[in-house]
Structures are given as C-alpha cells and as structure tokens.
Design goal:
The protein is mostly helical and 563 residues long. It has a single domain, classed as Cytochrome c oxidase-like, subunit I domain (Cytochrome C Oxidase, Chain A, Up-down Bundle), CATH 1.20.210.10. The protein is built from 16 helices and no strands. It binds heme-as (HAS).
Length: 563
C-alpha cells in the first residue's frame, strides 16, 4: 500500500518560495494589462446598457456592434487570459519556482499575446471587425483580426509550456513527492486550455484566415461554429478554475483554517479536465445540421461537468464549518459567525461563491435540452454569464488582487483600502444583482441578446421590456462606479500604498490528513481519457458536418482545398 501513496509532504516544509523583483515584474505586467482591459471593456459595457435603455444614442456614428465586440473581446478574452496567466505564474513561482530561462520564455509569451491583442484591437477600432467575441461566420472581419487572435492563442501556449516545464523541473528535484496542490491545479488548467484551443486554432487558421484573405469565396459556417464551441465551453472553465484554485487553497488560510481535502480538490480538477471539452454542442442545441443524438450525449456529459462544481461547493461548506467549529462556534449555522466578513480578501470571493448558486442553477437550466429552447439567444444567457464569469470569477480575481498586488509590489493593504474594497464589493454585488436579474427576466419575456434594437418582434411583451432595460442601465451604471473603485485601489496598491510585507496566503493540510493517493498524478492516463472522451463526443458530429458541407464551401480551405 505504501507504494500506492505519495509521501504526504506538508507544504509548509518547502513553501512559500520567495518572489524576486524580476519575477514580480513579469506577473505584474500581465495583471496590469488585465486592469487596463477592465477599464476599456467596462466603459463599453456602460455604453451598451445606456443604448439598450432607449434613451441614449452613440455619438459620432459609432456602431453598437463595434462597441459590443470591444466589450466581449477585451473582457471575455483579453482581461481573463492576462489575469489568469499572470496569477498562475505567481502560483507556480511561489510553489515550484521559476528559472531565469522560464521567465525569459514567459516574456516572449507576453509579447506574442500582446502583439496579437494590438493587431486585433486596431481592426476592431477601425470598424473592420465588428463580429463580436464569438466571431460567428458569415460575419467577416479583416484578416488581421484573426491573425491577432491566433497570436494571442500561441502566446498563451507559451505560458502552458513554461508552466508544465516548471512542474517537471520541480518533480525531477523532488522524486516521489506529490506536486504542490496549486501547481497541480495550474498544470491541469493549462492542459485543458491547450487541448481546447486546438479547436479555435483550427477554425481560425484553416477557415477564417484563408476566407478573409480571399483564398475561398465561402466558408462552412456550421463547421466553424462547431469548432468554436469545442473551444468555447472549456473557455469558461479556463476562467473558473483559477477562481477555484483560490477557493480551495487560499481562502482556507485567509479564514484561519486548513485545506478540507487535498485529494478531493485534485479529483475535482481531474474531472474538469475530462468533462470540460466534450460538451460544446450544448451551445448549439437549436442548430440544424447536428444530429440530436449527439446533442443529447453532450447534454449528458454537460451534467457530468456539474459534479466537480458540486464537490467544490461541498468542500467550501466543509472548510467553513470545520474551521468555525474548531474556533468554538457550534450549531447548524454557527460557522457563519466566525467568517472574517471585514476582510475584503475573503468577502469579495465569498460574494462570488454566493453568486454562483443562482449562476450555476441558470447553467443547469441552459443545459436542459428542452428548456434551452426557451432561453437560447435571449438576454437570459447574458444574465447567466454576468453572474458566472462577471461576478463569481471576477470578484474572486479582485479578492486575489487585494493581497497579490501588494505582495508583488512590496506594499501593504491598508485598513482604508480594505474598507474601500468592501464598498467596491457591495457596489459590484448590488449593480450586478439589478443588471443580471433584469436580464434574466427580460430573457424569459423573449428579449433578444446581441442586439441594440429590441423592439423588433412587435409582440405585446415588448412593452414590458422597457422597465427591465432601464433596470439594466441602472445596474450597469452602478457597476461602472465599482470599476472605477477597483481601478483606484489597484493603482494605490501598485504605486502608492505604504511599503511593507503582504502575505501570500497558501493554506496547509491538516496535520493528520490522509495521504493523497499516488494515482491522482497519473498525467498520461488523465490526458488519454480526456482525448478518448473528446474523440467519442466529436468524431461523428464533425465527420457528418464535413460530409454535408454546402456546395462551394469546402470544410477547410487553403492549403487543403481551394475553390
Ligand atoms: Fe454557462 C452559456 C451551461 C457554468 C459562462 N455560459 C454561457 C455563456 C457564457 C457562460 C459566457 O448548457 C454564453 C456563451 C455565448 O456567448 O453564447 N454553464 C452551463 C452549465 C454550467 C455553466 C451547466 N457558464 C458557467 C460558468 C461560466 C459560464 C462557470 C463562466 C465562468 N452555459 C451553459 C449553457 C449555455 C451557457 C448550456 C448555452 C446557452 C445558450 O443556449 O446559448 C455549470 O458549470 C454550472 C455548475 C455550477 C453549480 C454551482 C455550484 C455552486 C458553488 C458555490 C457554492 C457556494 C458557497 C457559498 C460555498 C452547480 C460552487 C455558500 C455560502 C452560503 C452562506 C450559502
């Protein structure tokens, strides 16, 4: 049995490693880029809700869809990817270390991503790529938009390779030891990201770029959308998993507790790897040309990916309850009293957790095949993802910012900044409750998404939409105030807060915790199962789509076939 277990090395014997100035510079550059994106994207969001209220017209002939594209691309793709890569580098650096070469390669990744982002941004700003963040064909953008996106993906792959290498080098030096939990989680997230982005890279390189360059006259729309959603759903877990890293391994330390179960946390992440990808058809349930059997199979797989989130909820409740009872708080809800409500490092992620209860429930509704026909393409879906990514994930990212940024800049989170952070969290929660709630209701009344002109269907319900659109404008304006607040806090923590030492809180396991089983580190097995599941869920649907490609639109263009 002993062979079956890894040495259950307590993390405090080797953690945390120190972060050098050069390390901080790399991590902070990614995070700063994310906050600049938040300002630009958030401002576009404000313009959108104002336009949709019907009481505001965009000045100087600016196009609504241009604004919507900037909002989606810069918040959904740029902010998230930069923050996640920067945060994950910090986690890896702190737990397994980063070498000079790895840091240098990390910088190459940054510049590749940034050149790509600038290229894509220029096309959008010139009005040559108003195709939204999903860039559905047959909407066509300037080739530089797709080339820019491809570079962002390649840059993020460089980060994948660096993170994998970091753990590999550590493993060589620590034979027989289990990898630190946070490093394990980062590596899983990056494996998932790499496999997922192969789909979007395929459609961009083989379909969109040749088509936008004029090598082909048409494009196979269904194939492009299927490849996009092969990537699009794991994209949302790429956002979620770094938040879960903080919930599992950082929040327990902040509340004065221990990790509930190292094994459970790892198992949840392995399940995310398996089930995040073979589920993309649940975004295409209303789409003709895809067989209903395969849609149903992917619906079932979608419900499998709910399980690791339920495990996470269980784990969080257990952490709170055990920590509370150790501090002497008894009774069914006594644990609630011990939580550090006045510590914004805890409060912001906790509000994110609360938002994920309705956010996750909404996801289950979306995924329920028949119910999807009620909400698909309505603004309900926009409400759903503002609760999940724009509340659960982003509030956790803010919670991380409150300690990570001062830790990296050698400053302190002062009492006044902490208080301002609490106000920021409240503004965010209130603004989002109003905006997202109104979006959900208007969606149920049939209000469309992705559209500035919501009066088109002429039904009786349209009259009811006005109030909800106004509520969205109010909620969105409160959110914009919250964005200004977090930017102010970020600037303070980066440049002006008093010098000092801020903790990098990494939780430990219980002293008498059961050793984590050896099999949880069987990387080759996990990747093989993931690939088998993907091949099972996608081979036949994609073969059928290619076989039935419309005349004159080859599935893949140059160099495979040029019409
Ligand atoms: Fe989703 C559409 C299904 C989760 C984001 N989703 C979207 C889109 C985005 C998005 C961006 O099946 C729009 C894409 C587009 O532009 O078209 N989603 C799901 C399901 C889940 C889910 C089943 N989504 C997310 C997450 C996102 C995200 C996470 C971002 C981060 N989603 C869909 C479907 C569509 C969709 C369809 C397509 C709709 C259509 O027709 O277009 C699940 O992963 C949800 C599982 C979550 C739970 C909740 C667990 C709760 C926890 C909190 C515990 C709280 C604690 C605190 C501990 C089961 C972990 C408690 C304390 C107390 C005191 C109470």
């Amino acid at each position: 049995m002993a062979v079956e277990k890894l040495i259950n090395c307590q993390q405090d014997s080797r953690l945390p490693l120190t972060v050098t100035k050069s390390d901080s510079k790399l991590y902070m550059t990614f995070i700063t880029f994310a906050f600049i994106s938040l300002f630009i994207g958030g401002f576009m969001g404000l313009l959108q809700v104002l336009v949709r209220s019907g009481h505001f017209t965009l000045p100087a002939g600016i196009d609504y869809y241009q604004v919507l594209t900037v909002h989606g691309v810069i918040l959904g793709l740029v902010l998230t990817t930069y923050f996640i890569v920067g945060f994950q580098y910090a986690l890896m650096g702190k737990t397994v270390g980063i070498s000079d070469t790895q840091r240098r390669v990390g910088w190459i990744g940054f510049w590749v991503m940034t050149i790509g982002t600038i290229l894509a941004a220029i096309t959008v700003l010139y009005g040559k790529a108003s195709v939204l963040y999903t860039f559905y064909a047959p909407l066509q953008a300037h080739p530089a938009f797709y080339i820019g996106l491809a570079l962002v993906i390649v840059g993020s792959w460089i980060a994948c390779f660096v993170n994998w290498r970091q753990l590999y080098v550590w493993k060589q030096k620590h034979p027989g030891e289990k990898s630190p939990l946070l490093a394990f989680m980062v590596v899983i997230n990056m494996i998932m990201w790499f496999i997922a982005t192969l789909g979007v890279a395929a459609t961009v390189l083989l379909q969109f770029i040749p088509w936008s360059l004029g090598y082909t006259a048409t494009i196979d729309v269904l194939l492009s959308r299927t490849l996009f959603w092969y990537f699009g759903h794991p994209l949302v877990y790429f956002w979620l998993l770094p938040a879960y890293m903080a919930w599992y391994a950082i929040i327990p330390k902040i509340i004065g507790g221990k990790i509930f179960s190292d094994s459970l946390a790892r198992l949840a992440f392995v399940l995310f790897l398996f089930f995040s990808i073979p589920v993309g058809l649940h975004h295409q349930l209303t789409e003709p040309g895809l067989d209903t059997t395969w849609k149903f199979i992917q619906t079932v797989l979608t419900f499998m990916v709910v399980i690791p989130s339920l495990m996470t909820a269980f784990s969080m409740f257990a952490t709170f309850e055990i920590t509370g009872s150790k501090k002497g708080y008894g009774g069914l809800f006594g644990w609630l009293k011990h939580l550090p409500w006045k510590d914004v490092r805890f409060l912001a992620p906790f509000v994110g957790m609360l938002a994920f209860i309705p956010g996750g429930a909404g996801g289950l509704i979306n995924a329920s095949y028949q119910l999807n026909s009620v909400i698909h393409n309505t603004i309900w879906v926009t409400g759903h993802f503002h609760l999940t990514v724009a509340t659960t994930v982003i509030l956790t990212f803010f919670g991380i910012t409150y300690w990570l940024v001062p830790h990296l800049t050698g400053r302190k989170l002062t009492k006044s900044m902490n208080r301002l952070g609490i106000i920021q969290t409240i503004f965010w929660a209130v603004g989002m409750t109003i905006m997202s709630g109104a979006m959900h209701i208007q969606g149920l009344l049939g209000g469309p998404r992705r559209s500035a002109y919501s009066e088109y269907n002429g039904s009786e319900q349209v009259a009811e939409w006005g109030a909800y659109q106004m509520a969205q404008a109010i909620g969105g304006s409160i959110l914009f105030i919250a964005i200004i607040l977090i930017l102010y806090i970020f600037i303070q923590l980066t440049f002006f807060a008093p010098k000092g030492k801020e903790e990098f809180p990494i939780a430990e396991e219980e002293e008498n915790a059961e050793p984590t089983p050896m099999w949880l580190e069987k990387w080759k097995v996990w990747v093989s199962i993931t690939v088998i599941l993907i091949l099972f869920a996608y081979t036949i649907p994609i073969v059928v789509v290619i076989q039935h490609a419309p005349p004159g639109s080859p599935p893949f263009a140059w160099p495979i076939g040029n019409n």
